[in-house]
Amino acid sequence: MIKRSFFGLPKPRLEYKALPDKLPEPEEISCSGNVTLLLSTFPEQTDRTLSVKEGDKIKTGQKLFFTNDDAYIISSITGTVSSISSFTGDFGASYTAVSINISDYEEVDEQFELYTKTPSLDTARDFLACVPGNLPINLLINPEKPIKTIVISGCDNDLMVYTNQYIIKSDIDSIKSGIGILKNITGADDIIIVLPLGFKHEFGDIGARVSTVDTAYPAASPHLIMQNILGRIVPAEKSFEDLGVCFMTAEAAASVGRAFTSGKIPVKKTITVINKDETVKLAVAEIGTPVRDILSTLGITLNEKDRVILGGPMTGTAVYSDEHPIMPDTSAIMIQDSGNIPHVSDYPCINCGDCIRICPARIPISMLVRLLEAGQYEEAADQYDLYSCIECGLCSLVCVSKIPIFQYIKLAKYELGRMSIAEAPDDYSGGDDE
Ligand code: SF4
Ligand code: SF4
Fold first, then answer.
1. What is the pLDDT, as a whole number, of residue 425?
2. Burial of 92 (0-12, 13-18, 19+ CB in 10 A)
3. Which among 135, 290, 334, 355 could disulfide-bond with 365, CB atoms 3.0 to 4.6 Å apart, if both were Cys?
4. pTM for the predicted model, two decimal places
């Protein structure tokens, strides 16, 4: 296996933008009828039963789970289960979708509050796995890979996305509480909060080191933060947690702080919404709210063949319906006008080399893509550094043949991940939080 150990950034062409000094007021989205919560059903098991059924009354903050499985979701509203069905996500990921009709009144489940006086990793594992910002709890609780350094990113990985910058500016008190709690419950001796260069703040002492990253895309990517701030390179076959480092978003850290100080599990997600004309707004909605409700509250009309993307312009994923629910890790929604959608083509690679020149990981992409197009994922990983890819999307942006290279890479990693879980021993209980 080739190991790419050094990143060489080409001359920056794309810049992250800073949140304006005058904070935008996020639009509070009211859910029009129901929310849909997605519970992962991989790996498939036949001997498990969902803890609720159609017609059951559900409280806000209530856990919904399968018997014989550690995974769960938290209800973001009070209501009645209206349907339970299967749902297929990105790259064929399978979920059980639980739809809940909203009640006129709210009742909060009190289970979590009983445990909040003494915060612990067990409580975080049992209740906070799907808070806004997607707390990487599986990484924090793995005794085989103890975490020594937690990096809290106040930057947003993609362009035109402001979600984490907004959380840092608007809710630093919750982040500060979250940092104190994370330090206590994980034993991590180093917590670093990373901000975009030039970000103005008056934090004072928040219990974490403060560092900045350049505004040139993709400097806010965890791999480049690891190299430029921690001075460490992650070998292609290793993960951050192998080196004792865990990345999380500022929103996840704020969720931990809010949860333990209020006694309630946070259920409202902050999202950046990028309209067709590239104007940007912020919105706050319950996890599970359909994209449709957010667009209609913001006055955004979706025409036939317009594209809905979850995430930003470089790394987001298109979804086929505006019924798609907001997830704990949905940082942005982007709408592309049907006339502006960059189409992929079936032209072959012409070996122009533009993708290799722009790739921060210097992967031989023109060779890699041939194996990916043929579905030879293991060979792609062994021979052409698939796992060195930091998923910035720059190669797809510059490809003159319009080959969807980035999507091929994500599909290949997903398929290899599925294969390794399927081949793991039966007692496997790990997870891949980002
Ligand atoms: S997405 Fe493309 S350009 Fe970015 S690191 Fe991966 S292969 Fe390189
Ligand atoms: S940019 Fe596209 S056409 Fe050019 S070498 Fe890379 S994959 Fe081939």
1. 64
2. exposed
3. 355
4. 0.91
